[in-house]
Structures are given as structure tokens and as C-alpha cells.
Amino acid sequence: MKINLDKKQRFLLLFFMAAVLGFTSCQPDDSFDDNGLTNNNVDASFDIVPVEGKVNTYNLVAKTNVVLKSIWNTGNGDYVGKGVQEVSFPDAGTYTITQTAIGAGGGTGTASKDLVVATTDPLKGNLVQGGSFSTAADQAKWTVLNLSASGAAFWSYQNNSATLHSPGGWAQEGIYQAIDVVKDKEYTIDMKVSALSGSDETWFEVYAGKSFPQPGVEYKDNKVMGLSTWDGCAKGAFSGMLSAVGCVKNDKTGTVSNVVKFAETGKIYLLIRCGGNKFTKDGITVSKIEFRGK
């Protein structure tokens, strides 16, 4: 069907189209993104309440129940928690605690508080020596376990941390120290781990074994926890406590757990073994290593 338009009709049609285009071009880019449901002023305030019957243990209690998700940071990186989150600080010190609260529509709010812990928990003192790597004396508490014949993988100490560097090709290296433990007593192991970029075919494993580490021999006695790209972590950048970001199962429990206990009183070896085939160019960094009575 052919439609004939006179000059006046063509002019009105062009005017209408120009008006529509002008209206849409003047709309902000996000005019359809904000549907009025986003809360851009989320209350992230919280209280710190001591837990009765537990030493140096506290509940972080969000003050509002409209928060959809609470992200907490007690000084070791962000992690997703609950509106009432229990935390423990075995060592005396001042800790800055931050909550990032996520509300309706993805809106966020952030609040921080300082917590002063007056005394160290005598039953949960850190048995690791030099776990901060902050001085040459700290670093000397660790023995390097040479595992790659070429020496291509190596540890470096800087910024209160130790970093494993590897060119890939399955190069690996370890560090360890001896720790005295008590029969049937439960302990927890943890440490802060980070990498600025991801890896593939890579592992970062933590052991607490009775066997003495031997140069050139992969240590495999009592794997407790770790990172593994085969198990789904360390494929991208990460930062946080290994107990939170790790995905390697505990040999004894068959679950992701940082709890260990031993059948005999005596010496064990806390050992970290790290390497891979397609290793992050930035290295994997560890700091704040802890081995504590539970």
C-alpha cells in the first residue's frame, strides 16, 4: 500500500520525530537505573558486645535489621559475615573494626570503631615465632626448604611479610619452623594471604606434621589448609585470612578446617609449601602467621 503525504503532513511528522529524539537524548545515562528502591544512606553503625564466658571474644552487632549483607574487616581483610558476628582477639592491642553494610538496591554504608583489648588470652597465645616477618630476627626463625633443583622459586621478606616468587613450570619452595604441642589439645592455624593477580595450576599448602622436612622432597605429612586452583581458589586476586579465603581440605577431617590436634606430645613442623605451573607474576604473600591453642 502506498501512502501519499502532502507538504504539511511531512513537516509535522519530521517535527514529531525531532521532538522525540531531543527528549530521549536529554535523559541522563542512568535515568532508568534508579527505580527509587535503592537505599543510598545505609546505616552501618554497630555495637561491640563482650561474649559472656569467653576471653577476648565479642559480638559485632549491626544496629539496624534492614541490612541485607554485612561485610566485616577486623584488620585482616574483608569477609562476608552476619548481622551479629562473633570475633576473637587473643592478643592484647587496639583493633579497628569496620562494617560495610549493603542495603536495598545495592546501596552501601560504612562505619568503623576501635576496640582496645587489654590483656592477651593466656591459653591462646601465638606459638609461632617470627610470624610477622617484621625484623631480621623474625625471619631467622624460619628455615627455607629447597624443593626446586633449579632454585627458580624463592621466598623474599619485605613489608612485614614473606612472598613466594615462582616463574611457573612447577617450581616450588617451602618454609618451616618447629613447634612444641601437647597431646590431644586442639589448635588452630591461620595466616593472612594475598596476591594481586590470579594463577592456574598452583597451590599454597600448610602442613603440621611430625616428619622432619628434607630438601628436594615434597612435604606431605598432615596437610591442614591452603589454596588450590584445582579446588577453585587463587584463580583471581585475593586477600584475607586463609581460614576465610582458602579451599583446601584438612587431611584429618576431610573438610575445609584449620583445626589440628596430635596423638603425642612433642615437636611438629609448621610448613608452607607453595608453587605451580602458571604462577601469578606478583607472587603469593603471607603474613600474621598464627598457631594457637583453641
From TrEMBL:
<feature type="domain" description="PKD">
    <location>
        <begin position="72"/>
        <end position="117"/>
    </location>
</feature>
<keyword id="KW-0732">Signal</keyword>
<feature type="signal peptide">
    <location>
        <begin position="1"/>
        <end position="28"/>
    </location>
</feature>
<dbReference type="InterPro" id="IPR000601">
    <property type="entry name" value="PKD_dom"/>
</dbReference>
<protein>
    <recommendedName>
        <fullName>PKD domain-containing protein</fullName>
    </recommendedName>
</protein>
